[in-house]
Amino acid sequence: MGRLQAVLFDMDGTLIDSEKVWFVAEAQLMAELGWPGEWGQEHQHELVGSSITRTIEYMMAITGPVADPAVVAQRLLDITEELLSLQVPMMPGAKELLTQVSDSGLPTALVTSTGRKLVEHVLDGIGREHFTITLAGDEVTNPKPDPEPYLTAARILGVDPAGCVALEDSPTGVASAEGAGCVTVAIPSVAPIPRAPGRTVLTSLTQIDFAGLAALIP
Fold it and tell me: Can you say whether the dihedral through the CA atoms of 80, 82, 83, 84 is positive or negative?
């Protein structure tokens, strides 16, 4: 089965169908800030996979300094948490793949740009028992697309990044995982991700299982 050492999962757009939730929350917040424009797909493409800091910087570059960025960030988190409290929608194939990887006994990590408070809320829905460790976006100095999140997860797990498969849905996340040296599986959710040497691009998690992940490590 190769030398697979660990499987590293992104959260938003990869395991849970939350990019739509973030989009709704961002649009609501922009309206609350008094911006008269339409929050469209071009904005969603720009922010997919981004940290909360990057998101607020982008939004306030559009609206201008109409409020304290820290207050705006908290409001975005509050709206998103409220929306996710109604449901944590799993992506197709996510539950099955998580179960297979967990049953294999290999170390697993959740590596996300989302902050710890919201991660804890989501973990109750997707099953925190599936992960050896979880690493939130506010627990690293340099978030995705910097490789720090994946390098940190591999270090904590005590594995070589080159022996890890990372699953990501955004160009930002793919850049982070590949920058860390991980073998990467991309399942684009909002923004397209081109094929590249050493990168597997799928349309759904239903297209791969644990054996398929293991086979990606020579």
Answer: positive
Q: What does the pLDDT look like over 23-45, one tens digit per residue?
A: 899 999 999 999 999 998 899 88
CB 170 within 8 A of CB 48: yes
Phi, psi of 48 (to 5 degrees): -60, 130
**What share of residues in the chain are helix, strand, coil (percent, to 5)?**
50, 10, 40
**Strands 164-168 and 108-111: what pairing?**
unpaired
pLDDT of residue 1: 43
- Domain residue ranges of the chain, discontinuous segments joined by +: 6-17+89-215, 19-86
Instruction: Report if pTM > 0.85.
Output: no
Q: Is the dihedral of CA 149, 150, 155, 158 positive or negative?
A: positive
In eight-state DSSP terms, residue 170 is: S
| CATH homologous superfamily, domain 6-17+89-215 | HAD superfamily/HAD-like (3.40.50.1000)
Whether 60 shows a pLDDT value over 80: the answer reads yes
